[in-house]
Amino acid sequence: MKSSRIGRIPIPLNNVHVNAGDPFQVTGPLGVLTLTVPSVIKIKLYQTMIKVTPVFSNQRASAIQGTVRTLISNMVAGVTVGFRKVLVLNGVGFRVSIRNNILTLSLGYSHPIIYCVNRNIKLHLISPSELEVFGVDKQLVGQTSADIKRFHPIEPYKGKGIRFINETVNLKERTKKK
């Protein structure tokens, strides 16, 4: 059985400190991230790179090797440059404001929506209708963005709602009266 193609690629280390104990820990200029590595995976630490190898030669270990290698690569990228997602609010009167990591959204409902954000996530207002979600944990940034987007999904006829900045919206054509 071969090892995973992605799992075989070494992870370059630049400006990070790695502790290969249990749990696996990566420290960089933006923060610290930890990962519990499964027992079927062995991590080899070199001066300028990390290699992830399976202990056994079976399909399950190969699949986990690729997953763990990607998770560690995302950890290294997160503590060095971080991850960001930009959300755009489209609609008349759609606004967003931030105070003490509490997000207040005005989305055309009869009440404002209040959302408490995880302390590991930083929010920046680009404009009253654009919001940047930034953090070192890729999964947490994506989940927070998806939670905010879920408050008002894109409506397919007028395009109103919350979307990612690079997301394209295919508008439907209205039915015409005969």
TrEMBL record:
Organism domain of life: Bacteria
Residues annotated as signal peptide: none
Keyword entries, A-Z: Ribonucleoprotein, Ribosomal protein, RNA-binding, rRNA-binding
GO annotation, cellular component aspect: cytosolic large ribosomal subunit
GO terms classed as biological process: cytoplasmic translation
Segments forming domain Large ribosomal subunit protein uL6 alpha-beta: 16-82, 91-163
Record bears the keyword Ribonucleoprotein: yes
InterPro entries to which the protein is assigned, alphabetical: Ribosomal_uL6-like (IPR000702), Ribosomal_uL6-like_a/b-dom_sf (IPR036789), Ribosomal_uL6_a/b-dom (IPR020040), Ribosomal_uL6_bac-type (IPR019906)
GO terms, molecular function: rRNA binding; structural constituent of ribosome
Gene3D superfamilies for the chain: Ribosomal protein L6, alpha-beta domain
SUPFAM superfamilies reported for this sequence: Ribosomal protein L6 (SSF56053)
Family according to the record: Belongs to the universal ribosomal protein uL6 family.
Role noted for this protein: This protein binds to the 23S rRNA, and is important in its secondary structure. It is located near the subunit interface in the base of the L7/L12 stalk, and near the tRNA binding site of the peptidyltransferase center.
Name of the protein in question: 50S ribosomal protein L6
Species annotation: Candidatus Tremblayella phenacoccinincola
